[in-house]
Specification:
By secondary structure, this protein is α/β, with parallel strands linked by helices. 30% of the residues lie in helices and 16% in strands.
């Protein structure tokens, strides 16, 4: 199935070399510019790779794959659907204005995306990639490939552990002076070599498959290796949150994590991903979605409402509009109905009084 999808995408890419990208959201403006009485906003979007919700203990999985996130003040959306079952579809779809039902590969190439709209609004945007590229999503913003680094702490044989993000993040955040969105594109749980996605200290579930050839391992060993990679992603996300919390006196911080698609690890005899969406098992389409809000962003959201929203169905369709909402970007292409936080946002003094009274009762 992955091979068939690769062939289709290569044919498409040949047809789309001369596409002219149409502008989107050129009317975009930040609601109030950074001034002496407002901190710059920073939202980090972690685009996960091959993480399935079924292996997140935040959602009830029997193995404790999320010990660090469980200690964080996060919201976990337990019923979230992906746009596709391969990165080349899901990644551009996640950042596009189109819903899954509307999206096509051609539309994604022909239309500017979330990053462009943010840029039109004057937000600084960066994309850091530790995967196989941004699939044209970051063509018009600052981007950097970390997977080519020769940092021996994280990298060998042309690949790097996702911990490479954390070293870079410490210094980078200290230089932020304007509203900023950073996308971190993980290597995550990309298979079949799951064992290469985590360092030895994250070999929590053993025996774990130490090969990219599944025929050499039992299903239990393959699943243990996969779950170890999820536990390492848990550490990466939690560590990003720690850094954002440390900076919230100077920055208005928030974080969104969404995986691009899931993974089959032996269910129904299937492994990896790439099944046609209409027949794909839930393991390939049910993905984790994590939200963390710093103290300033959190003060604008009714927490009882957010807790209820966490139980409602979500999807990749929400990313575009939720990020615009967090960054307070006003544009005609923004849809409140597709902003996860819209119905919970405190928009008036009356809303604030209600939120404060709920907080006092708690």
């Amino acid at each position: 199935m992955p091979i068939g999808n690769a062939v289709k995408l290569s044919i498409r890419s040949g047809k789309n070399q001369n596409i002219i990208v149409q502008p989107l959201g050129t009317d975009a403006k930040v609601a109030n510019v950074v001034s002496g009485n407002r901190k710059p906003r920073l939202t980090i979007v972690i685009a996960g790779e091959t993480a399935r919700a079924e292996s997140f203990s935040l959602g009830g999985y029997k193995k404790n794959t999320n010990p660090e996130l469980a200690r964080q003040d996060i919201t976990y959306f337990s019923d979230t659907s992906s746009c596709g079952t391969i990165t080349a579809v899901s990644l551009p779809c996640m950042f596009s204005v189109y819903t899954r039902d509307e999206y096509t590969h051609e539309k994604g190439l022909e239309t500017e995306n979330l990053l462009d709209v943010l840029k039109h609004a004057g937000v600084h945007v960066e994309w850091w990639d530790n995967n196989t590229g941004h699939k044209s999503v970051a063509d018009r913003v600052t981007s950097e490939t970390l997977s080519t680094s020769d940092n021996p702490k994280y990298c060998k044989n042309g690949e790097c552990l996702d911990g490479i993000f954390l070293d870079k993040l410490d210094t980078w955040m200290s230089g932020i002076t304007q509203d900023t969105v950073l996308v971190m594109h993980q290597l995550g749980s990309h298979g079949p070599a799951y064992y290469l996605r985590y360092p030895d200290e994250y070999r929590r579930f053993t025996p774990d498959c130490q090969s990219a050839e599944f025929s050499k391992c039992s299903r239990e060993e393959i699943l243990n290796a996969y779950d170890n990679s999820i536990a390492y992603t848990d550490h990466i996300i939690s560590s990003v949150i720690d850094r954002l919390r440390d900076k919230q006196d100077k920055l208005d911080t928030s974080m969104i994590y969404m995986s691009d698609h899931g993974e089959s690890v032996g269910e129904f005899g299937l492994y990896l991903h790439g099944a046609p969406y209409f027949v794909a098992p839930s393991q390939q389409t049910h993905v984790p979605y994590v939200l963390w809000l710093g103290k300033d962003a959190k003060a604008t959201i009714r927490q009882d409402c957010l807790a209820k929203e966490a139980t409602e169905p979500q999807s990749h369709d929400k990313l575009f509009h939720t990020v615009l909402g967090l960054m307070q970007v006003k544009t005609q292409v923004y849809s409140p109905a597709l902003d996860t936080l819209s119905s919970c946002r405190i928009n008036s003094k009356a809303d604030l009084q209600v939120a404060n009274s709920v907080a006092v009762r708690r």
